[in-house]
Task: inverse folding
């Protein structure tokens, strides 16, 4: 099912990668609370973060293992 919001997209990507909020945040270079706010749609990611999240190539070569 397609995501309706960017918050849903972030959540779906993180879960598909098998990552916790902490490991996902570390991989993106942001705080765990930031990811939480994104997923709750309380805060929008920066343009840099959006570009990283939407760039599928980073997920194919991730070096951060799920916790």
Result:
């Amino acid at each position: 099912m397609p995501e309706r919001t960017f918050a849903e997209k972030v959540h779906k990507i993180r879960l598909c990668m098998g990552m916790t909020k902490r490991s996902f945040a570390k991989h993106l270079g942001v705080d765990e609370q930031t990811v939480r706010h994104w997923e709750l749609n309380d805060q929008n990611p920066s343009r840099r973060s959006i570009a990283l999240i939407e760039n599928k190539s980073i997920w194919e070569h991730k070096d951060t293992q799920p916790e």
Remarks:
- The two ends are 27 Å apart (CA to CA).
- The chain has a mean pLDDT of 83.
- Residues 3 and 12 are 8 Å apart (CA to CA).
- The domain at 6-60 is CATH 1.10.260.40 (434 Repressor (Amino-terminal Domain)).
